[in-house]
């Protein structure tokens, strides 16, 4: 009655506890072996990204707020007026510097021209107009006229020197025209 | 027994070609696919957003710094303006923005009289000469024609005094005749170039 059939003693290592065809069981194995690492990786990345965005967004918002405050300050009527006024003064002072350093002073040229007329020649008319000079002189000394003509023609500061001489009895009338080289062209 | 019939070679064959192994390959491929999907659709947009925010922060930092510099400069200029307000206000008289040449007129009158000349007439006109070549932004040349009477021996001093005025006038043309009137005075015609500003709100 208590006699039982003798069972063979063997362990089958090839067959798993679950059935090889069970999909859910395989998914579980995959989740435990591979998926968990992937999930951990993804969670780490998500955490890093979350904290990065948190920090960056906060920094971005702080900067925006700071910029807005400064813009509001600069939009104030007094600040705006002052900014325009100071800008105008800056431009004006630069212009004044350009004018002061760039323009040619003509009083010196006129002084040289009028004082350069020899005493033997009488100055009747003088005209200086933007570098164009004309003289009307009278004399009785032709040599003085010749010397003056040579002096003007040999002067490197003058060009296009023209002499017109007419004689009436003993009086010699001389009309001279020439141009001055601008200072920067010398 | 049936198991006893399977030899070692057959066991190895079973291990190598087991459906278990095939399934593990499939799950590995699935894992890679899921990772790719995550990278493309979840991590990449977030990284792009972070990059964009970073760029925004960089730009905003520059703007913020420039605004800060502007505020500092304006504060400093305000201090300087307060200390030099009197001198700067004189610029309004030297280079008028409203065509009011009152300072120039009073100076001309004084200089002409000091050099023994009499002012006959003075005219202001739009400058039409070619001598002005400076590339100024706000200063605009204006022509002034002076008609005076006096002695030609004083002319050069007069011209020098005129060109020494703070408004930097330039003698553009001079013409005179040595013929004298009953009082022994000659007539002189002078053209000056002075500067003004064509914006009446320039100093406001």
* Total separate domains of chain A: 2
Strand content of chain B: 15-25%
Total domain units of chain B = 2
- Number of distinct helices of chain B: 5
Model regions low in confidence, pLDDT < 50 over at least 5 residues of chain B: none
Helix content of chain B: 40-55%
pLDDT average of chain A, as an integer? 82
State the strand order across the main sheet of chain B.
1-2-4-3
Give the helix proportion of chain A (percent range): 40-55%
Number of DSSP helices of chain A? 4
CATH level-4 homologous superfamily of the largest domain in chain B: Ribosomal protein S6/Translation elongation factor EF1B
The fold-level CATH name of the largest domain in chain B is Alpha-Beta Plaits
Instruction: Summarize the biggest pleated sheet of chain B.
Output: 4 strands, antiparallel
Shape of chain A: rod-shaped
- Distance from N terminus to C terminus of chain B (CA atoms, Å) equals 114 Å
Protein model, in words:
The complex is a heterodimer of chains A (186) and B (204). Chain A is α+β, with helices and mostly antiparallel strands. Chain A contains 4 helices and 4 strands. Chain A is rod-shaped. In chain A, 12% of the residues are buried. The model of chain A has no long low-confidence stretch (mean pLDDT 82). Chain B is of the alpha+beta class and 204 residues long. Chain B folds into 2 domains: 1-83; 96-197, 2-Layer Sandwich (Alpha-Beta Plaits). Chains A and B meet through helix 1, helix 2, helix 3 and strand 1 of A and helix 1, helix 2, helix 5, strand 3 and strand 4 of B.
